Amino acid sequence: MGKVCEICGKRSKTGNSKSHSNVKTRRVWKPNIQTILADIEGKRRRINVCTKCLKAGKVKKATPIVAEKI
Question: Model pTM?
Fold first, then answer.
């Protein structure tokens, strides 16, 4: 899967770059997508989430499993 947020569906947008001389060239705006370990319906899954969804608390990060020393 590409750069798509699995929570809100945010993806890359395209448009034009415009120089001072009014020359237009195509460009791409990419969202800030992070791959995180999330707790979804009691299961741990790696998902792609945008940083806005992370800051808004729309997804719960899974706590890392730490092995205990005996």
Answer: 0.76
